[in-house]
């Protein structure tokens, strides 16, 4: 049976830093060693080449007839490296003299002058060729290349050996520095892990390194948004439970009345009241759900996920909503008046669904608080010469509101007492939530023509 390959756990940040830094140090150290070998070899070769030239110059200054047998079989002892230096004296094709360790074959081509690399009897040689004082005499002074390599290696070892001993100390120091650098992340993780699930207090930022501070700030912002969301949900739950209790109690009471009614008229009235109570409860639930969706959208927008690219032709939405509400208005002989000309191409920066919700709540409130036979006026205009700014105005002929009452508009479940109208007080909360979410302005006042409330929405 084949089992799915388990993904490898990612390496810790400390391990990745240590691996990367130590690998980089090792690569740089190796490159530096290779460069040191090259430079040391170059310098040593130049120095030993000078020794070869100096030896050849001394041999050239001494006449051949003054050399005894011992001098013809040993190279001059100039310094501690000279026992490895050999020479040959050639006259045409005849070997006149050589040092004891010099081979019988020529160390290099005798006709050339200067330095040359050659191979004699399977050994690599570095040779200096120069003419002697006598005619057709060639002086060849050479040194085995292996001897030079030993000198280079000894010189390089004396340089790199302390550095090689320093590598473990450097690795230990890097480990200590990296471990100390990532310790704030470990402390942050421990602090978050030790928090109680219900704790949304911000993390302390004092002493946090600048590289970690954006993470702590983002976490604190997340905690703040979560706290606001939880508070909103708790408030929503409490408000919904409080507001739903009244219509449900009324429905239950009317159902009991219908259940115990003795005549058909009483039963019919109780059932009609029950249906009306169900309608009010349905409307309340719809408004509560709209507020919940707006709260969720507000939280998403504040975290950078909101969609602000929507646009809706407001005139089309207004005509549709007015047509939907006209049936309700007709029951009280009310009329919705759309003042012409509307701005046909004027868009509002809202999704179409929210534009309809905004218009429906404004018009529904205006109809609800206007007397029978009243008119509700709706204006959609573009101020100036069509500079891209729009204005929506809804006016009614109701009793209006005092400045104190206008200031409280938008508070959830706030209703003006003494109007005799049913409602949940959520319509204005929905309007202002949509306005804040999509950067619309909402202003209220008194209608100069109808005398009731005047609402102006601008963008």
Whole-number tally of structural domains: 3
Please mark out the parts with pLDDT under 50 across 5 or more consecutive residues, or reply none.
Answer: 73-81, 303-307
Helicity range of the residues? 40-55%
- SSE string, helix = H, strand = E? HHEEEEEHHHEHEEHEEHHEE
Average pLDDT, rounded to a whole number, is 77
In quaternary terms, these chains amount to single chain
The fourth-level CATH homologous superfamily of the largest domain is: Histidine kinase-like ATPase, C-terminal domain
CATH-derived architecture of the largest domain? 2-Layer Sandwich
Q: Give the biggest beta sheet.
A: 5 strands, antiparallel
Strand and helix map with partners:
Blueprint lengths: L12 H49 L7 H5 L11 E7 L2 E5 L15 E7 L2 E9 L5 E8 H49 L19 H48 L3 H39 L9 E2 H17 L4 E4 L8 E2 L3 H17 L6 E7 L9 E5 L7 H5 L19 H11 L3 E6 L6 E6 L1
Parallel strand pairs: 7-9
Antiparallel strand pairs: 1-2, 1-5, 3-4, 4-5, 6-8, 9-10, 10-12, 11-12
Helix pairs in contact: 1-3, 4-5, 5-9, 6-7, 7-9
Describe the fold and architecture.
The protein has 459 residues and is of the alpha+beta class. The protein has three domains: 13-156, 2-Layer Sandwich (Beta-Lactamase), CATH 3.30.450; 213-302, Helix Hairpins (Orthogonal Bundle); 312-458, 2-Layer Sandwich (Heat Shock Protein 90), CATH 3.30.565.10. It contains nine helices and twelve strands. It has helices spanning 13-61, 69-73, 145-193, 213-260, 264-302, 314-330, 352-368, 403-407, 427-437; strands at residues 85-91, 94-98, 114-120, 123-131, 137-144, 312-313, 335-338, 347-348, 375-381, 391-395, 441-446, 453-458. The strands form three sheets. A five-stranded antiparallel sheet has the order 2-1-5-4-3. A hairpin with a 2-residue loop joins strand 3 (114-120) and strand 4. Helix 1 (13-61) packs antiparallel against helix 3 and helix 7 packs antiparallel against helix 9 (427-437). The longest helix is centred in the N-terminal third of the chain and has 49 residues, at 13-61. It is rod-shaped, with a radius of gyration of 50 Å.
